[in-house]
Amino acid sequence: MTITRRSLLFTSAVGLAAIMAAGSALADAPPLKKKDTYKVGFAQTESNNPWRLAQTASMQEEAKKRGWQLVYTDAASSAAKQVADVNSMIAQGVDLIFLAPREEKPLIPAIKAAKNAGIPVILLDRNVDASLAKAGEDYVTFIGSNFIEEGQRVADWLVKNANGKTTIIELEGTTGSSPANDRKKGFDEVIAKNPGFKVVASQTGDFARDKGRQVAETLLQAHPDANVIYAHNDEMAIGAISAIEAAGKVPGKDILVLSIDGGKEAVQAVVDGKIAAVVECNPRFGPKAFDTAVAYANGEKIPDKLINPDQFYDASNAKELLSTAY
Ligand code: GYE
What are the boundaries of the signal sequence (predicted)? Predict the structure, then answer.
């Protein structure tokens, strides 16, 4: 066939129609075919704390149990690397991607790239900016905790049990991550409604133990009157305990330490009186993540969010529940 200008025009019009049709079909997240076994990706954010290790172990165990192939990547605390990790999973033709987006915004292009490649994404433990990507459209669903509520529960506990301790230092998680944004929001809102309580300093410790220790040390020097430290995760709380002790003060007596995650070391610190209270954030995602993928393949309607129930630890129950902590 000779290609005339006219036939070229015609082709491009047909092409355009096809693209438009595909575009409207793509309003929903890509489907997952029913199969006996799958090759799925798990794009982890980092592996520098027990929470992440427990989550990875739970995903790997579940894949093994079901005989699914798991393509695992560790972004080593870099959102840019995590974007590259997702792109490489797309290139490898995985059936589905489980993604723990390190921060709310930088992973959006990766989520859209997966969608364009026809690969469904399930967000695990961290969410993305809701104005930039939507459940049921860009990704299937978010599975994780209600971080706003976690922050509220810590603040509610403090308001009830403060015993005069009202001057608060806040150690925030990774800047731009959904748990840091929401744990701050939930906590600060309750504190703002309770006269007498005050957050005198709030700074990121990047969810990391040593960064938490360093930041706590600096903030305790700047605010010697502080008598509460609220850390967005256990790692920073444990770092803060070192900083408090290095300052010659007694955690649990001079300064109340409050945390989120509920790993064994932190629950043990509650038993020992060094941490006053911890809201659990359960990292054992494997069973629920894989069940959700199967339900999706079966054509079940998946809710936009699947919220994990979280335990609460303080002196009243820590000893009894210690063995159940991750
Ligand atoms: O609290 C923290 C981890 O995203 C919920 O990230 C998770 C948080 C968890 O590194 O310890």
Answer: 1-27
User: Is there a single domain that holds both residue 231 and residue 271?
Assistant: yes
H/E stretch holding 145 reads none
Ligand 1 neighbourhood includes 310 CB (under 6 angstroms): no
For ligand 1, atom 8, name the residue with the nearest CA. Answer: 179
Residue 264's nearest CA partner among 42, 53, 43 is 53
Residue 233 within any structural domain of the chain: yes
Do residues 259 and 266 touch, judged by C-beta distance below 8 A? Answer: yes
The CATH number covering residue 297 comes to 3.40.50.2300
| Alpha carbons 133 and 131: distance in angstroms, whole number | 6
Q: What is the pLDDT of residues 189-199, one digit of tens each?
A: 999 999 999 99
Cα of 51 vs centre of ligand 1, distance in Å, is: 7
Ligand 1 pocket check for 152: Cβ under 6 Å: no
- What DSSP letter does each residue of 31-50 carry, written as one string? P----SS-EEEEEE---SSH
Is residue 281 in contact with ligand 1, taking CB distance under 6 Å?
A: yes
Q: Is residue 54 part of a domain?
A: yes
Q: Residue 275 belongs to what domain range? A: 147-281
Instruction: Determine the distance separating the centroid of ligand 1 and the alpha carbon of 190, expressed in angstroms.
Output: 22
Answer yes or no: do 195 and 86 share one domain.
no
pTM: 0.91
Atom of ligand 1 nearest to the CA of 177: 4
Q: How far is the CA of 120 from the centre of ligand 1 (A)?
A: 23
User: Does 161 share its domain with 236?
Assistant: yes
* pLDDT tens digits along 222-267: 999 999 999 999 999 999 999 999 999 999 999 999 999 999 999 9
